[in-house]
Amino acid sequence: MRKIEKDIVVVGAGPAGSMTAKWAAQGGADVLMIEKRQEIGSPVRCAEGISKHWVEEVGITVNNKWVAREVRGAKIKSPSGHTFLVDEKNAGNEVGWVVDRVLFDKALAADAARAGTEIMVKTSATSLIWENGKIAGVRAQTYGEPIEIRAKCVVGADGYESQVGRWAGIDTSLKADDIDTCYQYRLTGIDYDPDYCEFTLGSAAPGGYVWIFPKDEDTANVGIGVQLSKVKHPADPKMYLDKFIAKRPGLKKGQPLEAVAGAVSICAPLDSVSMDNLVLVGDAARMIDPITGGGISIGCIAGMCAGKVLAKGVKANDLSMNTLQEYETMWRDRLENKQWRNWMAKEKLTTLSDETLDKIVHTFSQYGVEKLSVQDLLAVIKRHHPELVKEFEELI
Ligand code: FAD
């Protein structure tokens, strides 16, 4: 069987994998990134919304090729139609640009390649190689040929359906309450406001929301996330979305260019995402904002943290937890508190009735909200409806 030797093997060429590969290679590591699909970035299972504020931090150069649409902000809608607007700068991790994920993911992989990463597509990891009780690489199939990739560290960047963590014995399992099942159309020929990302809360999308993310003047990603524990039949998310579209004449007249189904984790941060000679990043590590279901920015930031630490480990010839502990510290310092807070907020939000959501959104529309952060929103509610904040006492 063909054998390949590398310092680092990254499994999965999504945003988190490419970012990890780039930062590790830039730091001097010999990196191979493998991707099971034949085309990086395709097919897309994403609403494609990102904010602008983190992009520079992780070293991404903005390119008009992958920016499909720039938006002014977010429109949040209550079940009965109250609406408040938040400016793009303050609207959270998914609002700013709507990207073309096929081109965005390829651009990130190209950055990793420019830094020295070797990339293999149509190459699927099938199991871990263990040697003397230690992880020593992965077995894979490339164009149907079995190969062994020996590496000092394996990076599991294999997304929501990740197997790498499971193979290593890291518990990445999810409760039904901590999963949103999603369905999305790319609708064209619609009448809508192409300057705002729109989010509709309440029973239209039990435990989740309906989104409209603009792609151009008359085309948008129109999708829904429904909490898995509230799904009675696998076709429910599509049924809720179809109902929502049928009630909006501007959307109803549209035609679908594509339809996609997928899922996101909306859980609290995992206790550990690394062990000797292995790290998990991005969706594979359940790094997703539990309120919005957005994970591109978080995956990229964690990928940068992982890549920097892996490069150090390669230089020191130590990829045990001695070195990798720094990755845990770095990503937790940067991301963990917000994931915890938003998970606790999600636990409460998903229990609120349409009437309560109407009251809350009406309050925001009357008094304004500067920033779409759990703390800022709660401060406004506390000022005007202290009785509602009782539900969220531990978050304030
Ligand atoms: P992925 O992008 O999933 O990449 C993982 C890669 O690993 C894939 O290319 C896969 O083919 C590959 N792979 C898997 N197994 C193997 C294997 N065994 N061997 C080799 N390769 C393998 N986030 C946002 O920020 N904004 C949004 O608007 C947004 N909308 C979303 C809408 C929907 C419907 C869904 C489902 C998700 C959405 N997300 C959004 C979440 C976002 O898509 C993910 O958080 C993001 O893609 C995570 O990046 P990643 O690199 O961790 O994983």
Notes on the protein architecture:
The protein is of the alpha/beta class and 396 residues long. Helices cover 32% and strands 29% of the residues. Helix 1 runs parallel beside helix 6 (296-316) and helix 6 packs antiparallel against helix 7 (321-349). The chain is globular and about 60 Å long. It starts with a strand and ends in a 7-residue tail after the last helix. Bound molecules: flavin-adenine dinucleotide. Flavin-adenine dinucleotide (FAD) is lined by residues 11-17, 34-37, 45-50, 94, 124-125, 157-160, 163, 182, 184, 223, 262-264, 282-284, 288, 293-297, 299.
Keywords:
D-Amino Acid Oxidase, Chain A, domain 2; 32% helix; FAD/NAD(P)-binding domain; 3 domains; globular; 29% strand; alpha/beta; 396 residues; binds flavin-adenine dinucleotide; seven-stranded mixed β-sheet
Quick structural overview:
The protein has ten helices and 18 strands. The protein is α/β, with parallel strands linked by helices. Strands 1, 2, 8, 9, 10, 11, 17 and 18 form an eight-stranded mixed sheet that branches.
Bound molecules: flavin-adenine dinucleotide
Q: What CATH architecture label of the largest domain applies?
A: 3-Layer(bba) Sandwich
Low-confidence stretches: none
Which descriptor suits the 3D outline? globular
SS-based class:
alpha/beta
| CATH top level assignment of the largest domain | Alpha Beta
Summarize the helices and strands and which ones pair or pack.
Blueprint: E1 2-11, H1 15-26, E2 31-34, E3 49-50, E4 67-70, E5 73-77, E6 83-87, E7 97-99, H2 101-114, E8 118-120, E9 123-131, E10 134-142, E11 145-156, H3 164-168, E12 179-188, E13 196-200, E14 209-216, E15 219-227, H4 236-247, H5 249-252, E16 255-265, E17 274-275, E18 278-280, H6 296-316, H7 321-349, H8 354-367, H9 374-384, H10 386-389
Parallel strand pairs: 1-2, 1-11, 2-8, 5-13, 11-18
Antiparallel strand pairs: 3-7, 4-7, 5-6, 9-10, 10-11, 12-15, 12-16, 13-14, 14-15, 17-18
Helix pairs in contact: 1-2, 1-6, 6-7, 8-9
